[in-house]
Q: What sequence folds into this?
């Protein structure tokens, strides 16, 4: 499984991913902001884009075990560099709870999170060069 995930992530070119998400109706092109950065991609449905964060917040706010799907979602968001966004909305201590729950994931899911984070880190570094 991990090898196939690596192949998929390695073959993902940002422009191709953007086009697929646009074609699927998730993203749309928008004019740049005040700094004149040209076009940027924005979610077509802002509520839909925010829904995963609400699910993670709800799961981490409740007492008891956090459902695996919410742990994976939160860990992938963190792996994609969105932990600062999670921190804005999560209750105190929730980030630590998410990290601990992510450590409890089975090996395949932990590897998915690690491979995703590595791919995102590589893309960010490549973009900065």
A:
């Amino acid at each position: 499984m991990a090898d196939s995930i690596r192949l998929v992530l390695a073959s993902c070119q940002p422009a191709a991913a953007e086009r697929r998400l646009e074609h699927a109706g998730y993203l749309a092109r928008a004019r740049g902001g005040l700094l004149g950065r040209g076009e940027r991609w924005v979610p077509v449905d802002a509520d839909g884009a925010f829904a995963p964060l609400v699910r993670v917040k709800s799961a981490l706010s409740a007492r008891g075990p956090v459902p695996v799907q919410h742990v994976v979602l939160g860990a992938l968001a963190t792996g994609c560099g969105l932990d600062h966004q999670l921190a804005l909305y999560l209750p105190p201590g929730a980030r630590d709870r998410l990290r601990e729950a992510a450590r409890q994931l089975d090996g395949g899911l932990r590897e998915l999170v690690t491979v995703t984070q590595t791919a995102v880190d590589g893309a960010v570094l490549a973009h900065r060069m």
User: Anything to note?
Assistant: Strands lie at 27-31, 39-43.
